[in-house]
């Protein structure tokens, strides 16, 4: 007979913080940004800061937010914090800045009664750009007057990739179509 048993809890070690890490955990002012090279203890400090606020200050884990540069790093942070706290949370307390921003947009849409926003995946963006560029090349879709030496590149994946990257950088910098046209001239 086979019986399933819950795995024993992993022992989670409490790290020894150095003077600067301890000062960061003790910080009670406004926002705190931890800067340092890889391996300097930023993640350990962030984990201990959340643990201190939850256990020491009585905050709910759902009131804490740690921003991580990638989804993988955010997942590892969530797992480490949950392990140190010995519990899980209803809200994701470690996110990427993009996921945090999208969450704000989703909540705002829900409050207004609007449908939730939808992110287009990279392949979906590529399909849309391909259709637009093919329309431009054929003249069926009005668009920019592409120089003749660029027209041959319009149907290529590489051109779409570069164009998509350009558009993302433009959005990041708050550039509008007129700004891009002025830069192009």
Could you characterize what this model shows?
The chain has 185 residues and is mainly alpha-helical. The chain is built from eight helices and two strands, in the order H-H-E-H-E-H-H-H-H-H. Strands 1-2 form a two-stranded parallel ribbon.
The SSE order reads HHEHEHHHHH
Structural class by helix and strand composition: mainly alpha
Shape: elongated
Low-confidence stretches: none
Number of domains: 2
CATH H level, superfamily name of the largest domain: P-loop containing nucleotide triphosphate hydrolases
Report the sheet with the most strands, covering strand number, pairing sense and barrel closure.
2 strands, parallel
Write the layout of secondary structure elements.
Layout: H1 19-26, H2 42-55, E1 66-67, H3 71-85, E2 94-95, H4 97-112, H5 122-138, H6 148-151, H7 157-172, H8 177-184
Parallel strand pairs: 1-2
Helix pairs in contact: 1-2, 2-3, 5-7
